[in-house]
């Protein structure tokens, strides 16, 4: 859906490039997670892909045509939900939705979506009276009003309680099941585990890793056994590599001589992989 080749971008007032020659693809029908430390260039990349920033070097193709050949019609295909919800606070949710609907040729039945995100009963309330979580959910509805082909989501569940976060994640998965493509940035690795087909890691403007979460776990992960034990009334946590546990004297020593509180087996989490990948420079 998007092909990005050697993309570089420098903000006009800066001395150095923020995006330094990145190449990747967002495939049709996938949820692509774009991850990286704060300031790595995720939002900048997102803004380049939705034509909010111009004057880049390299190539961006949308549906196999250069992105800069698309005019306003491009936005008919795109849904955007950035982290900071932008609404007219003196208008009701319904009025906000009606206002934004005017920009699009095709729109969806927003009442159904408002019901799904639990805002239908409050649709005639002024958005200024909405809680943070309600505004975030309304932001998602707004991103969907034109029945987009691609959704750009920036931290979509940040600030939502677990129930509402799950509702939103299920709606994102429904969107994908209907053939939609999603470009998602988030710091919540649980969301990545539950949603993303592939993830790309960006650090200091360079892509340092792209793969499926499963392959990343195979590459960076190892099965571990974590033991929690009591020593002089203090709780201590140690982790052992599961593959060598049979011959690990330190493990047996612990079992024989310490008061064991818990033993858990598990695999490396995406959170640990994030820390590892973004700490080391791979290329
Ligand atoms: N308008 C701007 N003018 C100049 N520099 C900018 C501008 N916007 C962002 N930057 C710089 O570009 C770099 C990348 O910022 P960007 O917002 O893309 O990071 P990010 O990965 O999205 O971070 P976060 O996870 O904190 O949202 C940062 O060093 C930032 O200071």
From TrEMBL:
A molecular function GO annotation = ATP hydrolysis activity
Q: Which residues form the ABC transporter domain?
A: 2-229
Annotated keywords: ATP-binding, Nucleotide-binding, Transport
Q: What is this protein identified as?
A: ABC-type transport system, ATPase component
Which InterPro entries is this protein grouped with? AAA+_ATPase (IPR003593), ABC_transporter-like_ATP-bd (IPR003439), ABC_transporter_ATP-binding (IPR050763), P-loop_NTPase (IPR027417)
Does this entry carry the keyword Transport? Answer: yes
User: Record keywords: Kinase included?
Assistant: no
Q: What is the lineage of its organism?
A: Bacteria, Bacillati, Mycoplasmatota, Mollicutes, Acholeplasmatales
Q: Which CDD domains match?
A: ABC_DR_subfamily_A (cd03230)
Q: Which domain of life is it from?
A: Bacteria
Chain ranges passing through the membrane:
none
Checking Pfam families in the record gives: ABC_tran
């Amino acid at each position: 859906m998007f092909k990005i080749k050697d993309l570089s971008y420098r903000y006009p007032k800066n001395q150095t490039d923020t995006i330094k020659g990145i190449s990747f693809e967002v495939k049709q029908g996938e949820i692509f997670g774009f991850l990286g430390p704060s300031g790595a260039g995720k939002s900048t990349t997102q803004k380049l892909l939705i034509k909010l920033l111009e004057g880049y070097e390299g190539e961006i193709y949308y549906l196999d045509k250069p992105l800069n050949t698309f005019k306003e019609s491009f936005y008919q295909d795109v849904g955007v939900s950035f982290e900071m919800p932008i609404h007219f606070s003196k208008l009701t949710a319904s009025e906000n939705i009606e206002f934004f609907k005017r920009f699009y040729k095709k729109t969806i039945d927003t009442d159904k979506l408002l019901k799904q995100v639990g805002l239908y009963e409050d649709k005639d309330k002024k958005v200024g009276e909405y809680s943070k979580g309600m505004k975030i959910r309304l932001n998602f509805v707004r991103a969907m009003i034109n029945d987009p082909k691609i959704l750009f989501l920036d931290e979509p569940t940040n600030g939502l309680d677990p129930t509402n976060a799950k509702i939103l994640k299920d709606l994102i998965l429904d969107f994908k099941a209907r053939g939609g493509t999603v470009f998602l940035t988030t710091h919540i690795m649980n969301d990545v585990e539950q949603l993303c087909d592939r993830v790309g890691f960006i650090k200091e403007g360079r892509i340092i890793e792209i793969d499926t979460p499963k392959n990343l776990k195979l590459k960076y992960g190892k099965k571990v056994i974590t033991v929690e034990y009591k020593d002089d009334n203090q709780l201590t946590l140690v982790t052992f590599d599961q593959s060598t546990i049979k011959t690990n004297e330190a493990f047996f020593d612990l079992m024989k001589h310490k008061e064991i509180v818990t033993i858990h087996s598990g695999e490396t989490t995406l959170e640990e992989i994030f820390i590892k990948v973004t700490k080391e420079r791979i290329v």
